[in-house]
Write a structure and sequence with these properties.
42% strand; 8% helix; 2 helices
């Protein structure tokens, strides 16, 4: 499993996800790159967030477009559909905290958090070939 703790900015108003016995918080967010690391390889990441339970659903009225939230201990899913060529990357579960907007311009505010713990296997076995060994020696 891949675990994630990040601060993210809502790109839409949060909504209650229908079709479940337990209601869920759902929102599309953007996760900023680490400060000082902005370049062609480190860009804003767009994700969908789904968290079930009454505590998460209680945040739906507070989280509007442009608001920041802290997602702590969620599971990160990275999927790719070969037939359509589209990716569906989302965060499921975890704890949500709404970050109130800063009222004072000089106030530092809540810091950006970007912590991801990736685990699992690769899709293909990593093979060390004779050519690779010769290149490195």
């Amino acid at each position: 499993m891949n675990y994630i703790t990040v601060t993210a900015t809502a790109t839409e108003d949060a909504k209650i996800k229908p079709g479940r016995n337990v209601q869920a918080f759902e929102c599309h967010v953007e996760v900023p790159p680490l400060k000082g690391k902005e370049d062609a390889y480190n860009t804003t990441t767009k994700l969908r967030v789904e968290v079930w339970g009454p505590n998460a659903v209680a945040l739906v009225p507070k989280v509007t477009k442009g608001n920041r939230i802290l997602i702590e201990g969620g599971e990160l899913f990275l999927t790719f559909n070969k037939n359509t060529g589209t990716a569906d990357n989302y965060i499921k579960g975890g704890q949500l905290r709404w970050i109130p907007p800063s009222t004072d311009i000089n106030e530092r505010g809540f810091p950006d958090v970007n912590s991801i713990f990736l685990t699992g296997r690769t899709n293909k076995h990593i093979a060390v070939t004779k050519e690779y060994i010769e290149e490195k020696s």
